[in-house]
Every structure is written in C-alpha cells, then in structure tokens.
Amino acid sequence: MLIQLLVSIVFLFLLLILLVLFFIRHQSKVPYYRLTQEQCVTLLKRAIQGVLPEYEWHAFLGMTVRDDDALDELRERCLLIGEFGIKGTQLINGQLCISFNKKGLSQLELLLDEWQHKLHYLV
Prior knowledge:
The chain crosses the membrane at residues 6-24. By secondary structure, this protein is mainly alpha-helical.
C-alpha cells in the first residue's frame, strides 16, 4: 500500500515536470503581431470614419505587447476609449463596425494626430 502511494506521488511529480517543460518549450511559439506606425494610423483613421470592423478593434485591444511601451500605451489608451467612448456597432457592407460617441471620436482624433507625426516609428 505504501509502495503504491509512493509510486503514484513520483508519477504525478514526473508528469508535472513534463507539463512544465512542455509549456516552457512552446510558450515562445505563441503568435504575436508587430504593427507599424502606418498600420496604427490606418486603424485609427478607420475607427474615426466608422468603418473599422468590430473584430479588428477587439483584436488590437487584446493583442499581447511584450517589447514596446509606446504601442502598449496606445493600446491601453484605446482600451479606455473603448470603455467609455463606444456608442455601439453598425452594419456596414455586411460587417459589424464600431461606432464611437463624440468624446470617443475626439480622443481618437487626438491619438491619430499624435501617431501621424511620429517619425520613422516601428512598433
């Protein structure tokens, strides 16, 4: 009985170690996206025009930013705009697009102005 218990504990410990090694090995292979300044400007322009699909907005807000503080700051500012500046969605050309209220639009325009004037910025 005691031997079976020890064997079970050792087996579970080895299984745990294997799972941790698997996670460490494959963690770096999780896809991530790199955006350029031009892509950020385009996203902001489309959001202001009301033709940005909802899924693109949420993909941008939910993306992982590990190595760039400026892009993460932009994403966080857009996240705040998304919390308080979204009016709803509207169907345009068969796609649900985000529409913003006046406050959200003005904040997006400020961000657009800021990001249009960044020089040679690669995120």
